[in-house]
Amino acid sequence: MSTSEKPRNFIEQIIDKDLAEGRVTTVCTRFPPEPNGFLHLGHATSICLNFGLARAYQGRCHLRFDDTNPEKEEQVYVDAIKEDVSWLGFQWEGDVRYASDYFDTFYEWALHLIKAGKAYVDHQDAQAMAKGRGDFNTPGVNSPYRDRPVAYHLAEFEKMRAGEYDEGSCSLRAKIDMQSPNMNLRDPIMYRIRKQAHHQTGDKWCIYPSYDFAHGQEDAIEGITHSICTLEFQDHRPLYEWYLNNLPVPHQPRQYEFARTNVNYTVTSKRKLKRLVDEGVVASWDDPRMPTVSGLRRRGYTPASIRRFAEMVGVSRSDGMADIAMLEHAIRDDLNNNAARAMAVLNPLKLVVTNLPENEVRTMTAPAHPQKPELGERELPFTRELYIDRGDFTEDTTLSRKKFKRLVIGDYVRLRGTYVIKAEQVVKDDQGNITQVHASYVPGTVGENPPEGIRPRGVIHWVSATCGKQATLRMYDRLFHHETPGKGVDDFIAHVNPDSFAVKQAWVEPSLARAAPEASFQFEREGYFVADRRDHSPEQPVFNLTIGLKDTWANRGK
């Protein structure tokens, strides 16, 4: 391997070996989410890994929903997950697949294990069953139902399927080893009763397979070659293999585990994310402060930035903590290179250009991006009345050019993309507040150096007061102000950042009202913003702050 080549991660090394030895001819991976919530940043890295491997090896990747628990699953989650995967830039092989597609097969395979004396119906309640399983220091004890005749268990399982028993009154368990040091092998549950309609199968079933019973069999049916899971499933692998070895499966997949992506200053537990939504801490699953894929998208993060983050996190065998600053760096870099430039004035002060006739509009042009001429130009209407940022003007004429590079009475500054102007006087209200600055423009200075003797202090941004548009800016920051939310307190919500959201009004270039939803811009000196994908319209422009121009968190608390 040349020094310029990227090192192969351990999964790529496994695949390389499998292909070289002929164990595998075509790589087939899968992304198997449960449709019980929206995808988050950790899922995004898994998507990039599984679909990325299939793409790199010219193989296949399936999108399969592990929909074995109708109590918590909804079609809205299915639809959101499909949209997220596509938006991230990946396409699954063939149709979307569901665990529920195989429920008939799973049922037949459950019967197969019962007939082989390797599964039984247990009528113990959950409490008795948990006690009988023991713990890491205490071996389990056999259920009193474990060794009843096969015919009994076949009949009982059929009664379960027919709905003759209440939820929680019994379950189907695999007969493995109640003495095993691996708790997952102590006669795990294969089927439990759930008298609830399923979003795919309706009321056909009132018994549903456990995730562990379904997972490996789904992989086997679909011909998955590399079943890639997070480390929490490492102890489940012996059970995964036990089912495959004891069932007439058409294929023998293999499971490999990698470290899940934990990210500081955030939470990626579905339970915690759902609580944030349910308790109104955030507005929705796609609130731009949420670490969900749909939330990141609405905030203005790009697929390329998330894929880049996944690449930076890498693939490891041991758990660690990824720095959210890596994701923020990825989006800054992406938007710096690709986002169009624009001007927005958040704290407006009216500037009157006294030597420009009223009602006259001079159309200026500026590049959409200073380093990307292929992005074209934008038009800037220059009018007698403009808005500049209040912080860009001072009456203090004693300030040196080095200390204040903006507009000062009696001195010059350039308005971005147009004339050099000279501030001449101010207008104040009864309380002494400045309401207007009067200035004159210097002819012949658009795109040209000013005449000798005129040296502008600097360049400031502006928007036409008569042609500009008012827009709503939603200012977002990190949702949590603590590096590890919940650490040292009883409740992770105690670490919610009270300054994570604010709303401001601004004057923006008129063309921004016509911006397409999800179009990104760098607002000069303010940050990177995106037109909200749901609320932005020409009549009511709405932009979300994606990220500031600089990292303001690096030195907090120092």
- What would the principal axes of the Cα set say about the shape? elongated
**What structural class should be given to the helix and strand makeup?**
alpha/beta
What helical percentage do the residues reach?
Answer: 10-25%
Name the CATH superfamily classification of the largest domain.
Answer: HUPs
Which fold name corresponds to the CATH topology of the largest domain? Rossmann fold
**Number of DSSP helices?**
12
Tally of strands = 29
The major sheet is characterized as: 7 strands, mixed
> What's the architecture of the largest domain, going by CATH?
3-Layer(aba) Sandwich
Radius of gyration: 31 Å
Sheet with most strands: strand arrangement: 12-27-28-29-25-26-13
Strand fraction equals 15-25%
Give an overview of the whole structure:
The protein has 558 residues and is α/β, with parallel strands linked by helices. It contains twelve helices and 29 strands. Strands 12-27-28-29-25-26-13 form a seven-stranded mixed β-sheet, with helices on one face. A seven-stranded mixed β-sheet has the order 23-20-21-22-14-17-24, with no helix packed on it. Helix 2 packs across helix 11 (303-313). The longest helix is centred in the first third of the chain and has 16 residues, at 41-56. The mean pLDDT is 95.
